[in-house]
Amino acid sequence: MNQPAESPVLALPDMQHQWLPFTPNREFKADPQLFARAKDQFYFDLAGRPVLDAGSGLFTTPAGHCRDEIAEAVHRQLQELDFTPGFLRAHPKSFELARRIAGLLPEGLDRVFFVNSGSEAVDTAMKMCLAYHRARGEAGRTVFVSRERAYHGVNFGGVALSGMVNNRRAFGGTVHGVSHMRATWQEATRFQIGQPDQGAELADDLIAAIRVHGAENIAACVVEPIAGSTGVLVPPRGYLERLRDICTAHGILLVFDEVICGFGRTGEAFAAQSFGVTPDLITMAKAITNGAVPMAAVAAARFIHDTVMEAAPEGAIEFFHGYTWSAHPVACAAALASLDLYERDGLFARARALSPVFLEAVASLRDLPLVTDIRGYGMIAGIDLASDGKPGRRGQLLQKKLYDNGLHLKTTGDCAILAPQFIFSEAHIARMTEILRSTIASLA
Ligand SMILES: Cc1ncc(COP(=O)(O)O)c(C=O)c1O
């Protein structure tokens, strides 16, 4: 199972000082679930027990854990150039990385701005939209249209765009001017794997938003091509195309948040390519470094970049935005090594080839009495479980039991979200399915 030879049993650390993110802290500390090591398809707990990683970490690590190629690139980089300020200074690897990413993107989207998390990417994309419209003399375009059940990170812009109530309840009211379209989940298409065959007309909610706000006030429509964190809502056939047409007709920018989809999850480099729809901006994060170092980016269409550049006086800073860690040399080294790995091992093609096996395996769980819906596309799938009366409680129990039974994945509410690594074999898929089946059955 590829466990590193030297793997001592580790003691439980003193956990009182850390405040954990998106975690029931008190419950976790009473019954902690820690990973001490990882290699390829497996995590290992403190006792060295393997846990199969069917979540690619957190959608971050499709090439498998602790890849030597990335570790060596990071090590070399730390000895060569550990940090460069990103403002008025730069280093060659970030330009090389931007060029490599531009080569993976749909044609025309080839200007790349580096940030450090998906949340930062979303807020950066929002600012780019505002900056673009302002540069064109349309500073009144400040409204954003997003969707119910969307997840766009935790910074204020992204929370305002998001459509998951627990994330918004306390913090969602501070940024105004966001209109939410309906989510694309439909009762009628339950258990359809791949793109649902009905629901394209849900895109007309964007027209409804135009009727309410006036197109001249709308900056952008922001969607995840596949809404990931909410439970894998695959876009109905024709839906993204329709959003694209409406945006184009009304001068509204279309932003795809590909923080989960990007880097092969849908079988192509980006979901924009899988679905054949080109947005004006794409956010990306997670798998950009195979999860090894925090990094994210926004790709903008060249016309957006050029408009912002040309509107600023000669010699002026064109875009007043950036982070201390933007294009950190170590992150760039990790990202370049990851892209090399993806390319050398043909991992996006491998994701595409493995997808039918994965989706069929997940679909085979539909006979379980607790399972109320299954959706999936490429190498991501969601399994809804019936609530036990308190939303989220069954999902949390599933999460715990899966850990005990040797499987890692993310749950949101009562939905299990599977996003296996692209280096899974059919045997790993079979093992994943077996553990899921017995664990879900045990909850009934
Ligand atoms: C679509 C999408 N956007 C943004 C984010 C936020 O990314 P981060 O957690 O890196 O800030 C996520 C995280 O899962 C995401 O799925």
From TrEMBL:
User: Source organism's superkingdom?
Assistant: Bacteria
Task: Tell me the first and last residues of the signal peptide.
Answer: none
Which keywords, in A-to-Z order, does the entry hold?
A: Aminotransferase, Pyridoxal phosphate, Transferase
Cross-referenced CDD domains: OAT_like
Write down the Pfam families for this protein, in alphabetical order: Aminotran_3
Entry keyword Transferase: yes
Cofactor(s) needed for function: pyridoxal 5'-phosphate
Q: Do the record's keywords include Transferase?
A: yes
Q: Which GO terms describe its molecular function?
A: transaminase activity
The family assignment reads: Belongs to the class-III pyridoxal-phosphate-dependent aminotransferase family.
Record's protein name = Aminotransferase class III-fold pyridoxal phosphate-dependent enzyme
Q: Which organism is it from?
A: Uliginosibacterium paludis
